[in-house]
Write a structure and sequence with these properties.
Blueprint (H helix, E strand, L loop, with lengths): L5 E3 L5 E3 L5 E9 L2 E6 L3 E5 L14 E7 L2 E7 H4 L12 E7 L2 E7 L1 E9 L12 H5 L1 E7 L2 E6 L1 H4 L2 H6 L1
Length: about 160
């Protein structure tokens, strides 16, 4: 694949635009919307965790958790995207990602499977995509009856953009 066939996004992720390379994503669900995180950015998948609140933190920061002796900042993806809170009876899961040398736990409703999708099938965001999702999306993959929104982790964790909006 030539250099012109690769697009590099703000998170440093290379995504095939033309050519035939497959991209792999860990799929998750937040408020009935499926999204994918590039598998190479995922460090761990966790079940429900005890999260300690952090005083004066932005509202998106659910708190911190201890992952094998390392403090990890927990981000509630629903809050970050301006969605209603998770129902009290649901059990959240976490996807641990690394960004800027730090670990972050992205709190989601469900974690699915790893999908390998053709890189050339990544499409631009449709104009009807929710603005919150659009602000953190690299594009979409059309699956049978669903859209997979590909998340740019760097944009999702960019709180200066969130405050400016």
């Amino acid at each position: 694949m030539s250099r012109t066939d690769i697009a590099v996004f703000s998170g440093g992720n290379a995504v095939a635009v033309a050519g035939h390379e497959a991209a792999e994503y860990v799929t998750t669900i937040v408020a009935d919307q499926m999204f994918g995180i590039p598998v190479l950015q995922v460090q761990d998948v966790l079940g429900p965790q005890r999260v300690t609140r952090i005083p004066l933190a932005p509202k998106e920061v659910a708190g911190a958790l201890n992952l094998r002796g390392r403090i990890v900042t927990a981000i509630d993806v629903r809050t970050r995207l301006g969605m209603p809170p998770r129902p009290a009876d649901s059990r959240a899961m976490s996807i641990v990602v690394e960004h800027g040398g730090e670990l972050y736990s992205l709190i989601v409703d469900e974690v699915g499977e790893v999908l390998s999708l053709p890189g050339e099938r990544l499409e631009s965001n449709p104009p009807t995509l929710d603005s919150g999702w659009r602000s953190v999306s690299l594009g979409i993959h059309r699956l049978e009856g669903r859209l997979l929104v590909v998340v740019d982790v760097a944009r999702l964790l960019d709180f200066t953009r969130a405050e400016a909006a």
